[in-house]
Design a protein that fits this description.
Length: 345
């Protein structure tokens, strides 16, 4: 099997020749440690926070990163802007602060790129056609996370009760944009559609199942009609109260099954017939452990989650800037060492 066939088989909950190895975000500071400076362009964007948040690379950069890390995928990122205070932490990671949409008076601040403009997709099309045998992943957001951040997470919760019409208006702006983007992206030749909308912390969702059913699920159903390629949903935290809704939506995969929030082995036992699971190599081990620790972690994941297919090995979130380069390489080496089917670990 080539990489594309391997990933698509896993997303169909079939057994490929080997456990696929994928990532949907590699922080640039980490890439700069892994690759020679000559392999990475330096003029990515004038706005440091913007380029860090997007984790976007040129096609050439992406292919070099994928080769070095033995990834079965490449990814292209296109996300709507978020209207919130933004900064860069000590580890080089972008983060969001207070939302800028506090009332109806602020709504006019939202100016999203025209999703019908073909120029918006020019580089995306290059990625879709230039990923070779690797799986070309289109990474975006469905709409709930940018709406929450633009309102501010605390303000979002308050407005659900005080001004629900404002919340719905912001949701509609982002989801309507996503509907158009999804339809066009799926026609470009991408293999997988990935939405990254965090909806939970470790102890549970950021909002109730009722809010999900009434506000989010109907908009996800509209998006489902536009997504014609396998759809992978990323959300951190304990998302168990929402998983059955994802199954109802016929989502192909769930990422990253955050360690300490969800039990990936229990998820495999419960949802093996419905979802491909993507995850969840512990970021604490990748950041603080040794290559031997990483190998042990990957071997155990492959032993317990890999049998029967429907599993893709990824980090427990993304390849963050604070991870040890040698551990990131050890992750991929361990998948190559132990991931061949039939699993014999």
């Amino acid at each position: 099997m080539n990489s594309r066939e391997r990933v698509l088989a896993a997303l169909s909950r079939e057994t490929p020749d080997r456990v696929p190895r994928c990532e949907f975000a590699v922080d640039r500071p980490l890439a700069e440690q892994l690759l020679p400076v000559s392999d990475l362009r330096r003029d990515v964007a004038a706005d440091l926070a913007s380029r860090l948040e997007q984790n976007q690379y040129s096609l050439g950069e992406m292919n070099r990163i994928a080769s070095l890390l033995q990834l079965d995928n490449t990814y292209y990122v296109l996300r709507a802007p978020i209207y919130a205070e933004r900064g860069v932490g000590a580890d080089g990671r972008a983060f969001y602060g207070a939302g800028q949409i506090q009332s109806e008076d602020d709504f006019d601040l939202i100016r999203l790129p025209d999703p019908k403009n073909p120029e918006l997709y020019a580089e995306a099309e290059v990625f879709a056609q230039g990923s070779g045998e690797r799986t070309a992943c289109f990474v975006t957001r469905a709409g709930i996370f940018p709406a929450m951040l633009s309102l501010g997470i605390e303000n979002f919760g308050l407005k659900l009760y005080d001004e629900p019409q404002l919340v719905e208006r912001v949701l509609d702006v982002y989801f309507d944009w996503s509907l158009e983007v999804a339809e066009r992206a799926c026609r470009l030749g991408f293999d997988v559609y990935v939405t990254t909308d965090d909806m939970a912390h470790k102890s549970g969702p950021l909002f109730s199942p009722r809010v999900f059913r009434e506000l989010v699920l109907p908009r996800y159903r509209k998006l489902r009609e536009r997504v014609t390629i396998p759809w992978v949903i990323h959300t951190d935290g304990n998302i168990l109260p929402f998983v059955d809704y994802f199954v109802e939506l016929d989502v192909a995969g769930l990422h990253p099954i955050e360690k300490g929030a969800m039990d990936i082995v229990a998820m495999k036992q419960r949802y093996a017939d419905h979802l491909c699971l993507l995850g969840n190599v512990d970021l604490n081990i990748l950041g603080l452990g040794t290559p031997a620790d990483v190998e042990d972690e990957v071997r155990e994941l492959i032993r317990t989650v890999g049998p029967g297919g429907g599993y893709i090995c990824t980090s427990g979130n993304s390849l963050a800037s604070y991870l040890k380069p040698e551990n990131v390489l050890a992750l991929s080496h361990a998948v190559q060492k132990y991931g061949a089917y039939p699993i014999a670990v």
